[in-house]
Amino acid sequence: MRHSQTLIPTLKEIPADADIKSHQLLLRAGYIRQTASGVYSFLPLGNKVLQKVEAIVREEMDKAGVAEMLMPALQAAELWKKTGRWYKMGGELMRLHDRHDREFALGPTHEEVITTLIADEVKSYKRLPLSIYQIQTKFRDEQRPRFGLLRGREFIMKDGYSFHATAESLDEAYENMYQAYTKIFTRCNLNFRPVIADSGAMGGKDTHEFMALSEVGEDTIAYSDQSDFAANIEMAEVNITYPPSEEPLKELELIDTPGQKTMVEVSAFLQLPLEQGVKSLLFKVDERFVLVLARGDRDINDIKLRHALGAKEVELASVEETKELLQAEVGSIGPVNVPEGIEVVADHAIAAMRNLYCGANQTDKHYLNANADRDFHVDGYYDLCFIKEGDPSPDGKGTIQFAKGIEVGQVFKLGQFYAEKLGAQYLNEQGKQEIMTMGCYGIGISRTVAAIVEQHHDEDGIIWPMEVAPYLTHLIAVNPKKEEQSALAEQIYVELQEANISVLYDDRQERPGLKFKDSDLIGLPVRITVGKAASEGYVECKLRESGEQFDVHISELQDKLKELLS
Ligand code: 9G3
């Protein structure tokens, strides 16, 4: 492609509203433009990269035996009412009306559509299992669109769905897809980790998220420094055996702690270690109230609490609710003298503690030397706290470290929620009606492009890995006014095209400095410069990633490029 015939509007300045590298560089290098908040055009180079990533996805899906189809983005409200998500999804679901005032949504995902289709078309166990995917534009009215392609309101997603007669069959498809995703992100040259994730409140079971490691990621990953254990911080199990305290029990003592609210304040006021105190928080768990206890140095994790209690929803009780139920301000509540009807659960660490201090359920008072069973009752001990850096890895190998990640993919065992609501049933071998079991699998295609740029750039611009580069070579004539340079550049351009080596040819009448700057910004793997040595038949090759450069005679150029690009 000739630069003069395409659209690559590079920018000298960093756009003011772009606060992460991928957003800045994709704008500056002329790959994307914003048309509305969280809505982007992919210009010719951006579109090429999308196509490269999509091609990798299609190849790997093909190998994994998953068929591609295409569903409508426009979805009738009726489908969403059947699963209840029309009411549940709130403002994030993009809603609209047709001219007859019928309600629609612009699809944020396609569980409703695919499950309805399969319910109509698949009736027998003989057609199961079945896996389908599509690559399509999705719509989500994000509260705060930001970070360019990382959190848009319109984005490109690969979404796949599988249908099964048995849980074992779903396990197989899940594993197959997990392996395919690992290949896809490896081919995209991403430094990533598949992590154990939370399946949310909607009936799902196992789920892994594929996280591209990056400082700008919104999720925190806890991983082992000595094994492949990795989990979202909310999910990582704390696997510590706390040796029981041998201290003799001391007498319970009520003391004044005026104005001391947080654990850190109370600990400093009492001159006792944080680890000897109890953090008490009142939660609303579905329709009941539960007092949750953790050691003073740990944070309570509401997702673990939801899992431990088998609840649908968990939220912190309000300040007013806490005050009304426990007769004290939030900073002074505790497990001693908890009114009838409030369940008390505790993190495992509490079971090993003796003579601990805690809120007294009287404002500005705490107890010293409280002991479980003697002074307060605990209904159950669970793993309820966030893991910390330096904790042992739950698999027993190594120590936990934290990293930030961008979620680029997810595999999910959905179970039967959608199949049941939408009537996806089949006749089993005995002729009996059964509900199908489902999995779903997503890759954020446009987000993956941004994640690649986050991991592959330097001060001067993007550094595309071969597999996803919009073109493999960037051909530049230093001074095209010189006849021998422009003639040689034209000749190389034609020959590379004939040899199927993709090339972007900067044929502009511009200063060499500007062309080199643009070339670094655009980030193609190999630059071919036609300059003074053109008259002797030599050009210069420069590798974008290593900065390595060398002269090549044109008679050897194609062989050299094939070697570099293989
Ligand atoms: C909605 C809206 C936003 C949403 C969803 C529904 C996220 C929603 C989760 C998924 C699950 C899987 C198929 C590919 C793999 C992931 N945000 N999710 O369901 F209505 Cl507004 O999309 N879907």
What's this model, at a glance?
This protein is of the alpha+beta class and 566 residues long.
Give a quick set of tags describing it:
single chain; 566 residues; alpha+beta; BirA Bifunctional Protein, domain 2; YbaK protein; Rossmann fold; 3 domains; nine-stranded mixed β-sheet; five-stranded mixed β-sheet; 15 helices; 31 strands; 29% strand; globular; binds ligand 9G3
Description:
It is built from 15 helices and 31 strands. It has 566 residues and is α+β, with helices and mostly antiparallel strands. The chain folds into 3 domains: 15-237 and 401-453, Bira Bifunctional Protein, Domain 2 (BirA Bifunctional Protein, domain 2); 253-382, YbaK protein (Alpha-Beta Complex), CATH 3.90.960; 473-565, Rossmann fold (3-Layer(aba) Sandwich). Helix 1 packs across helix 12. The chain is globular. It binds ligand 9G3.
Low-confidence stretches: none
| Helix residue percentage | 25-40%
Give me the Rg, rounded: 30 Å
Distance from first to last alpha carbon: 21 Å
Largest sheet: 9 strands, mixed
- Percentage of residues in strands: 25-35%
Structural class: alpha+beta
* Bound small-molecule species: ligand 9G3
Please describe the topology of this protein.
Elements: H1 21-28, E1 32-36, E2 39-42, H2 44-63, E3 67-68, E4 74-76, H3 77-83, H4 85-88, E5 94-97, E6 103-106, H5 111-121, E7 130-139, E8 154-164, H6 167-187, E9 192-196, E10 207-213, E11 219-224, E12 230-232, E13 253-256, H7 263-270, E14 278-285, E15 288-295, H8 302-308, E16 314-316, H9 319-326, E17 343-347, H10 348-351, E18 356-359, E19 365-370, E20 380-382, E21 400-415, H11 417-422, E22 425-427, E23 433-435, E24 437-444, H12 445-455, E25 457-458, E26 461-462, E27 473-477, H13 483-498, E28 503-506, H14 512-522, E29 526-530, E30 538-543, E31 549-553, H15 554-565
Helix pairs in contact: 1-12, 2-6, 2-12
This protein binds ligand 9G3.
